[in-house]
Fold each of these.
Amino acid sequence: MDMTNYQWFMEKRKMASLNMFGPYRFNEETIKKVVSKNKIGNYALGYSKDGTFYVKYVGRSDTDLLVELIARLAKGHSQFKFSYASTRLEAFRKECRNYKDFTPSENKIAPAAPEGVNVQCN
């Protein structure tokens, strides 16, 4: 079966999963209610339509996911998803995977490695 590049891309996106909690409304009250303080983790910002979450941006926090999400509120997204990570390296690897799987339109460059960790997003 021959697939166009677009068809292949859409099939890949259907199979990919963020493996995150949510989606939740992207506002300070909800963030403070559902995200724990001082946790390393990952997030995706976007919106839902017809039961599908559309990823516009993926990121991580190596120190406090709650603070990172609140700092992103001005970006104007309607929903977010999140997950916790045990280590900065684990969070970085997940961010790379999500960046590659979803190619979010608002991520202009590949994720940078955590400070002091010599690894690339590949």
Amino acid sequence: MANTRNRIISTFIIILSMVLCFGVAANADTQQKLDETKDTLNQLREEQAKQSSELSNMNSQMDTINGRLSDIQNQIEDKQDEILDIISECEKAGNPDMVFEFASTSKVSFPGSGIAALASSEANLADIKKQLTIQTIGHDKINQLRHVRYFKDINGLKAHMMKHAEMLRPKFEATLKVLDEELSGLGIGSWSAPRGGYFISFDAMEGCAKSIVAKCKEAGVTLTGAGATFPYKNDPKDSNIRIAPSFPTAEEMEQAADVFVLCVKLASVEKLLENK
């Protein structure tokens, strides 16, 4: 009996030891998993803090950009030219049907895929609508909706144009700087300093525009054709050149302007010698 009891006790002790060992191993494995989970959570918290910091920096940058755009908008609005409403003036003068105004977003949203607009008197618009019913089944309403949803209203359009102004201003400034430094006071040319739009209008001496454009082309600078702003491109004085600084970079415009003023001087000297 004693031996049996001793064997039972020994067996019980062995089983108890095994259970205790398994429990210790299980606890160790659980603790390892807990530690790994804590590490993962800490990594996630660090990543979240990093993303929050980056988001905060982005918001700060956006606030700076919006503030800069607001300042630019205020500056531009202060310097904008107020154009007389010619349709209203014609109506006051008793000739409401004299003028048609055409506009397009081709240089505002999508070149070649913008939307067009027409302004005129009520009588003119009614007459044009009759013609349009024959000319087209319907306008591109999807494109019209696209523009309305993007710009929303006139303020959205103005804000978008401020972005255009921000991109274009350095190019215009680079061009005007060279013109001012190289041609001011010489009496061989005058030019506009536009407060809007996409072009600088340059007036050379009479009979020099085509020569200037040709000389620039020989030197590697392609300009809009002389007289491009006149009906049938026929400038009776052969003096006007439209400079378009929008496509090149500011640095390229400065180089192109250097070539342009040199060609202006050469063409002017040739013309003066010819008339002497």
Amino acid sequence: MRIFVRLLLLLSLVLAMGCSSSPGASSKPVYNDFVAWQLFNERAVWYSSTSRKPILIYFYTDDCMPCEQMSRHHFTNQNIVLTINNYFTPVRLDSQNKKTRYLMSEFGIQQVPAVVILSHVDRSVLSKMTGVPAPVLFFNNLKISLQMDRVKAIQGVMIGE
């Protein structure tokens, strides 16, 4: 419970932070050649809960070569883009922002690029990746995170939450 409250407080710290904005993912699988990044605000958190999609937070900077590699090799890969756009609430945060740096420190992230995936059920951390993993490893991590989120949802139903 304490971790849940702490994560909610952390998420509220960045509610007004700007990120690249694109239309949200539709209910049908769609491949758009790019990840449909959303603003990280109350609406994204609400959408994650109501759509039952985990939140994928991508920490980056504009002048980071590994971040550029992620953009070129991961966020243009058809399987990765399709999975993120249709099964996650994707948001990205510029690590040069003071509030973003604070959030990164709370997640124990010291370098970019980094990706944190939060459960739609209780906002707990499902996955944390730093650096540039091979696209296939990144994709597999997305799939594992989705499975872990589904297990949390099933456990919540069984407990009666």
Amino acid sequence: MTDLVIATPDINRPALQLTGYYEHFANERVQIIGYVEFTYLQHLEESERVRAFEEFVIRKIPCVIFTTKMIPGPEILELCNRYQVPAFAVDKSTSVFMAEIIRWLNVQLAPMISIHGVLVDVFGEGVLIMGESGIGKSEAALELIKRGHRLVADDAVEIRKVSNDSLTTGLDYTLHNAGVSDVYYGQDYALSRKEAGEWRELPLRSGELMLVNSILYTAPSGKADEPAKTIRWEDDYGRLSPGVYRLSKWVSTDEQSRHTYPVSVEFTIPEV
């Protein structure tokens, strides 16, 4: 199986192919069999199931992955072994797993160069220190680390081009509470994009509309300089293209969040 190569980050769910339609079949992609495809196969007679799956695996696919705790039967695994098609099974739901594998493949298959230098995270921004050997790159990075910044990579820095667009993956925010009561808020948030003058709420990669997290923060009353919090939405929403966006959060005046109130901020990702 050393000749198997995954060359594209795209994936395919072979619903139509399992019914016998193979025109325009993207056999070079990772194949995902979710709940719908799996239950379709299970409803077939064994001879029909073997015929349908054999027609699928003979087309030189790189691998097939069963999601949602679906375990293929021995006749399916025997066909995978016969035609040397790697088969995997994962517990995650189809939509969640698809989002993760696409993101992972986009990074792994992205064009990459290696640069001699030191990469430091300074206030959430990547700072690449470059120069000739012995000029003091590591010493400069060490001074930044002493001031609370974070070392990302030293000596050989790998840079990958994961998109052709100018994109962003997060922001820092501060919640100012000018009221007379403490307010409470979590890590949950939602993103909307302005399109034709209307706000359209963006769906999470999981298919939901809002991220929910149990961590609770407090913004004391009358305290104007709360420490900044960071939101990184790449895993939840992917990278955002240029446009006008709104980030919405919900605050409450009690820790049980019986009464919540929306707060939001608009921001623009400019064209470059």
